[in-house]
């Protein structure tokens, strides 16, 4: 008998005659949380993780991106395919597209990455990337030390159940809540280990 | 008070290994350890309490989490098959391992097939349980731990003492010593001027591991959840070392215990709220990765591990331990854990959950495993904070009943049973006791002395309530 058959047989013997269980879902599910004031709540909660947050009207987005990249002192920034055109032009900053030449080692030499996101969660201050347009493959938002993420106000949902309902499971998903951090030294949260040490979120209303 | 009585069964002739009391007695003498643990557990307890109280529906989430896990366990055979099908459909390969040795054999074989001799690892409880690193080393494969706390443990040739923060027993100064002394032996050395400032320590870990992440072709991980419906794996982490391992290598091998399943995608809406708030006390952990099958050109292998879990599943009371999502809230709140630390439990699963998991997974052959169900005052704090409502005290009591108790205790219980069986017998014994009450000792004789060393022996009354009632007709005479 294979291990597969043996494990399955043991499970069947172990639970034989046990009653099944109804799942009570009395918690606040998708659509149950109020959807007002989400931009403010989201911005506050992202800020709690010591990420940098800006809320700007759509007309001011390009200017804000430009100001952030300049302030950062960045020279080479990766922008995944599908990022809304036209791309801002930032003096002194090269905006590069992803491509076959951009292996992990090369990615380690760029100054940052500029992306969109798939969904954002107000209650937890989370952005979720699903490798869709403007987000790119997962390594892009991981290896560079700086991540500037543009969130449209209509992408912000109230709670975790709303985000789960909006996302598609078979895409590679990365939920990001603040910059890379650790609690491993005396259980205090310290920002900045292996992922981007600076997360900047731009909410466009 | 002459010594602390822990309510443990006496040593049995021929019992192998060292029990919890001896380990605990050693641990509590380490004042540095107690200081480190006290500081860390207090910090995390306050943080958890804060973020849990933010959610008005915490109790409902907890009820749902418990029920989802119970329902999964009841139908585990069907959900495992569904998961296997979904992962295979998405281009992944599924392997089944009945025990630790088989899991290690499968993983070593998969690594060998790639031709690589180095792997990076995401922190995983299950590969610690199987002793994977040692098994790989025997095959000439070096496994590099990449979680900061696991790195501290690996470099320091130490053992993990906490589920979430394996180096919780180390403070910043000790961590600096480990990094400064040992990093060079494993790769890039620590900077000359390394201080014990936590951000500097995190930076040293970042630099030490960076090249390894960029170059290593095989990664090994566990998973927090595996969704049967979609075949999706879920890993929650903080540092980004998990993302590095899950994303950059060409081959990813994920080992999960069969109890890690949840039936549907939607179920994640419950656990993504319960787990981060219970474990690190955050509204959300910095990074959560979800992937389904072979992703972005990667080769993906899933190893499903039993290793005693089906035995636990067969125990009606004990099976609730399989609901555990390894958040470690029960460790952080436990008065015993806070004082003795994780090493005293002699297992990769320390604390209250370890006290019920270890004896069930490994059997109760050794002195250590028999003593673990007594490593508790049964205060119930662990049950209260458990996000999937595992009644740990009930399982502890259940497991205590499975071990053989000392002769004196068994004789005492048998005598009490005989007396309490008939009301006439009880009345006669009470009259006898009342007459001899002046002779009652302050310290109980023999092995029962341990009980009275830490408690006052209650005074025997001159007559029982029933006798008084009969004599006075309820006080009317």
TrEMBL record, chain A:
Xref: InterPro entries: FTHF_cligase-like_sf, LUD_dom, NagB/RpiA_transferase-like
One Pfam family it belongs to: LUD_dom
Domain LUD: 106-204
PANTHER family: LACTATE UTILIZATION PROTEIN C
Descriptive protein name: LUD domain-containing protein
UniProtKB/TrEMBL annotation, chain B:
Entry-linked InterPro entries: 4Fe4S_Fe-S-bd, 4Fe4S_Fe_S_CS, FTHF_cligase-like_sf, Helical_ferredxn, LUD_dom, LutB/LldF, LutB_C, NagB/RpiA_transferase-like
Keyword tRNA processing applies: no
Any one Gene Ontology molecular-function term assigned to this protein's record: metal ion binding
Record-annotated LUD domain positions: 82-296
Span of domain Lactate utilization protein B C-terminal: 401-471
Keywords: 4Fe-4S, Electron transport, Iron, Iron-sulfur, Metal-binding, Repeat, Transport
A GO biological-process term: lactate metabolic process
UniProt entry tagged with the keyword RNA-binding: no
One Pfam family here: Fer4_8
Taxonomy, superkingdom: Bacteria
Descriptive protein name: Lactate utilization protein
């Amino acid at each position: 008998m294979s291990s597969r058959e043996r494990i399955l047989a043991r499970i069947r013997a172990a639970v034989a005659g046990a009653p099944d269980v109804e799942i009570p879902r009395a918690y606040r599910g998708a659509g149950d949380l109020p959807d007002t004031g989400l931009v403010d709540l989201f911005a506050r909660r992202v800020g709690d993780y010591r990420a940098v947050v800006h809320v700007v009207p759509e007309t001011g987005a390009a200017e804000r991106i430009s100001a952030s990249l300049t302030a950062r002192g960045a020279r080479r920034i990766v922008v995944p395919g599908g990022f809304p055109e036209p791309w801002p032009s930032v003096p002194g900053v090269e905006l590069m597209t992803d491509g076959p030449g951009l292996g992990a080692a090369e990615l380690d030499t760029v100054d940052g990455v500029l992306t969109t996101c798939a969904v954002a969660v107000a209650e937890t201050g989370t952005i979720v990337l699903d490798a869709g347009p403007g987000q790119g493959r997962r390594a892009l938002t991981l290896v560079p030390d700086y991540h500037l993420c543009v969130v449209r106000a209509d992408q912000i949902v109230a709670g975790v159940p709303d985000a789960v309902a909006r996302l598609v499971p078979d895409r590679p998903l990365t939920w990001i809540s603040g910059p890379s951090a650790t609690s491993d030294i005396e259980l205090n949260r310290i920002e900045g280990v292996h992922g981007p040490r600076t997360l900047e979120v731009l909410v466009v209303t | 008070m002459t010594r602390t009585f822990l309510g443990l069964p006496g040593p049995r002739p021929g019992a192998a290994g060292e029990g919890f009391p001896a380990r605990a007695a050693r641990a509590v003498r380490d004042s540095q350890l107690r200081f480190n643990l006290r500081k860390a557990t207090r910090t995390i307890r306050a943080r958890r309490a804060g973020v849990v109280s933010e959610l008005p529906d915490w109790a409902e989430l907890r009820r749902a989490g418990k029920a989802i896990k119970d329902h999964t366990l009841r139908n585990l055979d069907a959900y495992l098959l569904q998961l296997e099908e979904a992962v295979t459909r998405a281009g992944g390969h599924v392997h089944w391992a009945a025990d630790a040795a088989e899991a290690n054999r499968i993983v070593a074989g998969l690594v060998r097939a790639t031709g690589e001799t180095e792997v990076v690892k995401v922190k995983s409880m299950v590969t610690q349980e199987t002793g994977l690193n040692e098994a790989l080393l025997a095959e000439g494969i070096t496994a590099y731990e990449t979680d900061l706390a696991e790195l501290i443990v690996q470099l320091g040739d130490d053992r993990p003492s906490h589920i979430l923060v394996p180096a919780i027993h180390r403070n910043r100064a000790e961590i600096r010593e480990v990094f400064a002394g040992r990093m060079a032996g494993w790769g890039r050395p620590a900077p000359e001027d390394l201080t014990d400032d936590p951000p500097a320590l995190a930076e040293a870990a970042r630099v030490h591991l960076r090249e390894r992440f960029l170059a290593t072709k095989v990664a090994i991980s566990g998973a927090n959840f595996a969704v049967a419906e979609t075949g999706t794996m879920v890993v929650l982490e903080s540092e980004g070392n998990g993302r590095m391992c899950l994303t950059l290598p060409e081959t990813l091998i994920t080992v999960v215990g069969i109890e890690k399943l949840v039936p549907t995608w939607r179920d994640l809406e419950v656990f993504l709220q319960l787990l981060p708030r219970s474990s690190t006390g955050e509204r959300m952990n910095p990074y959560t990765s979800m992937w389904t099958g072979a992703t972005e050109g990667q080769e993906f292998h899933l190893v499903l591990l039993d290793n005693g879990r089906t035995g636990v599943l067969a125990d009606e009371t004990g099976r609730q331990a399989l609901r555990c999502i390894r958040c470690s809230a029960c460790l952080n709140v436990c008065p015993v854990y806070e004082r003795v630390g994780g090493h005293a439990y002699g297992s990769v699963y320390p604390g209250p959950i370890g006290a019920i998991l270890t004896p069930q997974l490994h059997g109760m052959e050794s002195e250590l495993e028999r003593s673990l169900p007594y490593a508790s005052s049964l205060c119930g704090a662990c049950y209260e904070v458990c996000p999937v409502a595992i009644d740990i005290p009930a399982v502890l009591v259940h497991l205590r009943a499975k071990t053989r108790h000392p002769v004196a205790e068994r004789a005492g219980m048998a005598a009490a049973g005989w007396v309490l069986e008939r009301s006439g017998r009880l009345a006669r014994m009470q009259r006898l006791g009342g007459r001899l009450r002046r002779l009652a000792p302050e310290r109980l004789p023999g092995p029962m002395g341990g009980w009275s060393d830490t408690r006052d022996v209650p005074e025997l009354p001159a007559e029982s309530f029933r006798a008084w009632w009969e004599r006075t007709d309820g006080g009317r005479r």
